[in-house]
Design a protein that fits this description.
Residues 227-489 form the CHAD domain. The chain contains 18 helices and 10 strands. By secondary structure, the protein is of the alpha+beta class. The protein has 3 domains: 2-209, Hypothetical Protein Pfu-838710-001, CATH 2.40.320; 218-303 and 342-378, Four Helix Bundle (Hemerythrin (Met), subunit A), CATH 1.20.120; 387-510.
């Protein structure tokens, strides 16, 4: 068995940088470090197998036969761990005679969740998709560590459907993982790269199943268990936020949907909030550079909120289009407002920029190396205590703050709700970080009205933008639309007030 430790990058489209230019840049960059006979180029054909019900996929296994230079090898990749774009995944490789089907009995018995199913698995195997690509490989000695750099270009296909393969992988063969990150930084200086968890196999399964990447329903709970330390829970919450962030980055790169960018920011906010939530245990200055770069990233998306609300107003499927459906002048005016914002096409350039990639690399490295432990302010007993000891306290401090800011007996208007949105969201993020330690039914019941209130605030912000645009709108029906908007706001605030006052009567789940 081998355990791969590797970083995976997606390369920007051929229109941004040609495959020839990618190869040229890698040759130049890696030349000083390449080992003797350390370069080769091969054509690889992989066929991936599973049962018709994707049983192997349900185990998070990947099974393939790879053919190159007339030789064949079957590989089983088992469940591993991914942080950012850093992959640690056990794999089993067996040389075989040229064959149309893998022989599962050649893998160790202990890899299978249930050895009694092996015969059924073997008889049910069927090819699902193939990958054909050219692989350039450089074996380099970088600061005493041996690293394999591969650049793949080709396609993954299933029946008559296909997707491009354009990716670079750095695998640590021997040595220190720090050099893996440092070499990755060098690559991002010269090439438009994006750390990616979207494997060739994942893309192949989507082609086979005729499905597309789509937004997750919600950010969900960070998976914790009652035996974790404060430090472990902190690390898990950061990883949860980063995974959500990067998943929706991948969705955006396929769909260019504003809703996916909203989910990217939710993941970013969870990372930022976790750094703040655990500040008593992990000093803020231990992550100073990460804090600064996350602030930079959030500023890069300062245009997004307005763009989302304009789209909500003008979308044919939106709640507001019916009211303004026949008012082409107003629709044109609103759409022109959106065009005046930052071009959405710039988002892809951001995701493939060195600044963005290096931010994620810094965060990944900080997590993997537990960079906060370099600071003398770390209190060992505090960060190694059981997280259950402090979970209720951390949730309660957000709850007390919200109750003090929005007393149940006080009335609030639309602007108040818009102002308090960030504080409500922060309380819910604390719940996402720590809620898995508590009863799921109690937790869901308590969070539900606050999630509804956030949706209501989203509508208030859309109406506020609508009202703002009406100020400069010259149409004859401007006054009628303003009255309609005011009535909608009044009705919505009444609903929010009832929900808030009811929510404050509930007993916290912690």
């Amino acid at each position: 068995m081998d355990t791969e430790i590797e970083l995976k990058f997606a390369v920007a489209s051929e229109a941004c940088v040609t495959s020839t230019e990618v190869k040229k840049q890698l040759d130049t960059l890696l030349l000083p470090f390449i080992k003797t006979d350390g370069y080769n180029c091969k054509k690889l054909i992989n066929t991936y197998f599973d049962t018709p019900t994707q049983l192997l996929r349900s185990y998070d296994f990947g099974l393939r036969i790879r053919t190159r230079d007339g030789a064949s090898e079957q590989t089983l990749k088992t469940a591993g761990r991914v942080v950012g774009g850093l992959h640690k995944r056990p794999e089993y490789n067996v040389d075989i005679e040229q064959n149309n089907k893998p022989d599962l009995s050649l893998f160790p018995d202990q890899v299978w969740p249930d050895i009694n199913l092996l015969n059924d698995l073997q008889s049910s195997l069927t090819p699902l998709f193939t990958t054909h690509f050219t692989r350039h490989t450089w074996l380099v000695d970088y600061q005493g560590s041996v690293i394999e750099v591969v650049c793949d270009s080709g396609e993954v296909s299933s029946e008559d459907k296909s997707l491009d393969i354009r990716e670079i992988e750095l695998e640590l063969v021997d040595g220190d993982m720090r050099q893996l990150f440092e070499l990755a930084d060098l690559l991002t200086e010269v090439l438009p790269l994006r750390l990616s968890n979207d494997s060739k196999a994942a893309r192949g399964y989507r082609l086979f199943l005729n499905t597309e990447l789509s937004n997750q329903a919600e950010i969900g709970m960070c998976e914790l268990d009652s035996n974790m330390t404060v430090e472990q829970a902190f690390q898990r919450a950061i990883e949860h936020g980063l995974a959500y962030w990067q998943f929706h980055e991948e969705v955006y790169c396929h769909s260019q949907s504003l809703s996916s960018l909203q989910q990217v920011l939710k993941g970013v906010y969870l990372v930022r909030h976790t750094l703040n939530l655990y500040r008593e245990f992990i000093p803020k200055k231990a992550a100073t550079q990460i804090w600064q770069e996350i602030k930079w990233l959030i500023r890069e998306f300062s245009w997004l909120d307005e763009a989302v609300h304009i789209k909500q107003l003008t979308s044919k499927k939106g709640n507001y289009r019916k009211k303004i459906a026949e008012d082409e002048q107003l629709i044109s005016y609103l759409e022109a407002s959106r065009k005046g914002l930052q071009k959405e096409s710039d988002v892809l350039k951001l995701f493939y920029s060195k600044e963005y990639s290096q931010l994620i690399l810094k965060l990944m490295r900080w997590l993997v190396e537990r960079g906060w432990r370099c600071y003398s302010e770390i209190d060992e007993p505090k960060i190694t205590q059981n997280v259950g000891v402090i979970a209720a306290k951390l949730n309660q401090q957000d709850w007390e703050k919200l109750k003090n800011m929005m007393p149940a007996k006080q009335d609030f208007d639309a602007q108040d709700y818009i102002y308090f949105e960030k504080y409500i969201a922060r309380g819910l993020l604390s719940g996402a970080s720590l809620g898995d330690l508590f009863d799921s039914e109690d937790r869901s019941d308590f969070r539900a009205p606050w999630l509804d209130i956030l949706e209501g605030i989203f509508e208030l912000k859309t109406l506020a933008l609508f009202d703002e645009n009406l100020t400069n709108y010259q149409g004859d029906n401007g006054q009628d639309l303003k009255v309609w908007s005011e009535n909608k706001v009044k009705s919505l605030v009444n609903v929010l007030e009832q929900s808030r006052k009811s929510a404050f009567k509930m007993t916290p789940y912690w």
